[in-house]
Fold this protein.
Amino acid sequence: MSDDCIFCKIASGAIPAKFVYEDEFLVAFPDINPMAPVHVLVIPRKHLDSVAAAGPSDSALLGHALLTLPKIAAKLGIAESGFRVVMNTGKDGGQSVGHLHWHLLGGRFMEWPPG
Ligand code: AMP
């Protein structure tokens, strides 16, 4: 837990959010500024600034997250139509919140390339 991290506060319940999924390692909640009909953020309960701050001891956590993302997509009804997972990292990656997170987007066709 990082004291000044908004996503740590959401994960701990200090800031209320509607969890669409939670388990021992992850929580998922709607993005406050949705970019698609379905747009949730999936975050580890553990504070990591970004994937660039992860180390070998985080292998199981990262693997668990990748395996869980499609399950959350299924729960939200976008597994069959398809979905996009985005992990913005650092300044040029467009990361604005310094707690590792995956955007799970769906409910419409996702254009490529991204802006
Ligand atoms: P990124 O720009 O990849 O770091 O993504 C951060 C995301 O967090 C943005 O899409 C914001 O809309 C979202 N966000 C910021 N604060 C909150 C919050 N309190 N609840 C839900 N989503 C948030």
In short: The CA atoms of residues 51 and 91 lie 13 Å apart. The mean pLDDT is 97.
